[in-house]
Amino acid sequence: MTDISRTQAWLESLRPKTLPLAFAAIVVGTALAWWQGHFDPLVAVLALTTAGLLQILSNLANDYGDAVKGSDKPDRIGPLRGMQKGAITQAQMKRALIITVVLICLSGLALVSVACKTPADFIGFMVLGLLAIIAAITYTVGTRPYGYIGLGDISVLVFFGWLSVMGSGYLQAHTLIPALFLPATACGLLAAAVLNINNLRDIDSDRQNGKNTLAVRLGPINARHYHAGLLIGALVCLALFNLISLHSLWGWLFVLAAPLLIKQARFVMRELNASAMPPMLERTVKGALLTNLLFVVGIVLSQTLI
To answer: How far apart are CA 55 and CA 306, in angstroms?
Structure first.
């Protein structure tokens, strides 16, 4: 095993391409805090760092759990990762998981120490951080991982949507208004759409290996309807937020991403073969990032170009 192939194996398990989606939710939360008149660059950077490390932990744990359970086999459509290829041992992955958890604890502790102004907030966010670590690991690791019983989508909605957006916003603004639930939900739905495409790609191999993702439980047809609902639901949430709270023409900037999301939804509905899904994974990620970016730009312009 050469150094280059070992490095490639670790990159495949770390999956750096998934990090922008984790960062996007923090950026949206920071933009919403700025919209409320608050912005703390140090808190924002620490939140981005913690979110990125949690995503890496989830990726590594996913690799470990699937490899140990043997659910990712050579016949799957999706790519095999470091452990599945035999390039990374269980012991090496366990060490990587421990190191990542330690880094998350350090980053998270720094975040809450800087951002939290009351003991209640400090304790509350420490508990939320612990839950996030547990959720990242137990998605595929353990005797009954929740990703294997169709609960992964709910976890993504909670941690990539509600907690990331509203949590990062609260740590800067120190206030929480109900309307923020809408853009937070939109972020979560877009992230869940990425997961659903991944699960649609692997639906046949997952079913055969006892990995009952939500896509497996819904079936190929209903999972495609569900995917369209996620994309449309995100657009509706952002539209409602603009109508209820933002009240700005710039707030509709996200609509520029709507044709792309609708095109993706139509493609997924039309193509019933799982082998057609791999290209859509990257496109769904890009569509989610573009929607979030346009929403953030709309918030900024609505406040600076009044």
So the answer is: 37
Name the domain count of the chain: 1
Q: What angle do CA 172, 159, 29 make, to 5 degrees?
A: 30
Q: Higher confidence at residue 26 or residue 144?
A: 26
Nearest to 222 by CA among 238, 199, 206, 205: 199
Positions of E strands within the chain = none
User: In terms of residue numbers, what domain contains 272?
Assistant: 3-304
Q: Radius of gyration of the chain from Cα atoms?
A: 19
What are the backbone dihedrals phi and psi of residue 89, each rounded to the nearest 5 degrees, phi first? -85, 165
Cα distance between residue 118 and residue 224, in whole Å: 45
Q: What is the pLDDT of residue 77?
A: 60
Rounded to two decimals, the pTM is 0.92
Question: For 196-210, b where at least 16 C-beta lie within 10 A, e where not — what string?
Answer: bbbbbbbbbbbbebe
Residue that the structure tokens 């294997």 belong to: 148
Q: How confident is the model at residue 1 (pLDDT cuts 50, 70, 90)?
A: low
CB 67 within 8 A of CB 211: no
